[in-house]
Amino acid sequence: MPTALITGITGQDGSYLTELLISKGYTVHGIVRRSSITARGRLDQLFHQEDVYNKRLFLHYADLSDVTTIRRILLKSTPDELYHLAGQSHVGASFEIPETTCEFTAMGTLRLLEILRDLDKQPRFVHISSSEIFGRPDQSPQNETTPMRPVTPYGVAKAFATQMVTLYRESFGLFACNAICYNHESPRRGESFVTRKITRAAAAISMGLEKTLSLGSLDGRRDWGYAPEYVEAMWRMLQQPAADDFVVATGTAHSVKDFLAASFDAVGLDWEDFVTQDPRYMRPSEGTHLVGDPGRASKSLQWTAETRLPRLAEIMVQSDLDALLASRQRADS
Ligand code: GDP
């Protein structure tokens, strides 16, 4: 049975990918950053399965800047596939911490590629890139050949990493792919991303726990898909005869207002009665017209995004309602 190594295993995508690979019979190794808070809630379900944790799922501590440790983990785990998901992934935060963003997202990827270059047994490699590399593109929808014009520190760091992956594939013959993922959401999305912030607030407001929701610009449009489907595309890329880059997207853009309407509709409320705008959440600049053309993924990987708005918002609101109800019951008992 194959072995996979995942950087960023504790994140939204890492947890769904781990579940997918475990269900396919893989042994999974994950790299975790040591911190004083254990942020492993998304993997909880797997930890509690006796035949999985420390039998087919192993965690290792390392920072992406810790080359020696990462090399040791690679030499010990000898993975067939390496999924590189880790990085500072919040676009808004990247304006506050551009150096950290570049350190992890850009240099972290280059360091991994350098380690792979020296290995005798090189795993198949996929870097989870982002639509932010396109920034303000000339063409819409974007595909794998659209020029990169990033307009955020995160986008610039991702563009560097993406181009390095292509360079190492072409120059050193690595089986290295870029999954150019558009926004993908789920109940496991971090609460500071706009979708989850909205669905959590819609649930809390409908239960009378909160009164308003404070947001930044409502003009942005995003191509929002469902994260569990996106990790399936990542896996399919590594099963191809040759490495390539793939846009992973739904092909349809919606505005933040559309997401608000779908989420508040799910609880029978009108978002305009509750949303206020706060300059704190506005960004110095942002990408526009980001919508992906998933044609290559559809043709070569036989992959299409199934779950879209409003269904996506309904799934997330329902999960937030369930979680708030459960915590209220715990508090009452
Ligand atoms: P990303 O920036 O595309 O990775 O995803 P986000 O979920 O962080 O933001 C999506 C869009 O929502 C962007 O256009 C943001 O400017 C907009 N937005 C509006 N209000 C907020 C907010 O309060 N938080 C975040 N994260 N985004 C917001």
Mean of the pLDDT scores?
A: 94
Give the total of domains. 2
Class from helix and strand fractions: alpha/beta
- The third-level CATH topology of the largest domain is Rossmann fold
The span between the termini is: 46 Å
What spatial form do the alpha-carbon principal axes imply? globular
Low-confidence stretches: none
Helical proportion, percent range: 40-55%
- Give the biggest sheet: 7 strands, parallel
State the helix count. Answer: 11
CATH architecture of the largest domain: 3-Layer(aba) Sandwich
Strand arrangement in the largest pleated sheet: 3-2-1-4-5-6-11
Strand content: 15-25%
CATH superfamily of the largest domain: NAD(P)-binding Rossmann-like Domain
What is the N-to-C succession of helices and strands? EHEHEHEHHEHEEHEEEHEEHEHH
Written description of the protein model:
It is a single chain. By secondary structure, this protein is α/β, with parallel strands linked by helices. It folds into 2 domains: 207 residues, Rossmann fold (3-Layer(aba) Sandwich), CATH 3.40.50; 89 residues, Alpha-Beta Complex (UDP-galactose 4-epimerase, domain 1). 41% of the residues lie in helices and 15% in strands. The protein has 11 helices and 13 strands. It has a 7-stranded parallel beta sheet, sandwiched between helices. Helix 1 crosses helix 8, helix 5 packs parallel to helix 6 and helix 7 packs parallel to helix 9. The termini are far apart. 45% of the residues are buried. The mean pLDDT is 94. Belongs to the NAD(P)-dependent epimerase/dehydratase family. GDP-mannose 4,6-dehydratase subfamily. It catalyses: GDP-alpha-D-mannose = GDP-4-dehydro-alpha-D-rhamnose + H2O. GO terms for molecular function: GDP-mannose 4,6-dehydratase activity; NADP+ binding. Keywords: Lyase, NADP. Catalyzes the conversion of GDP-D-mannose to GDP-4-dehydro-6-deoxy-D-mannose.
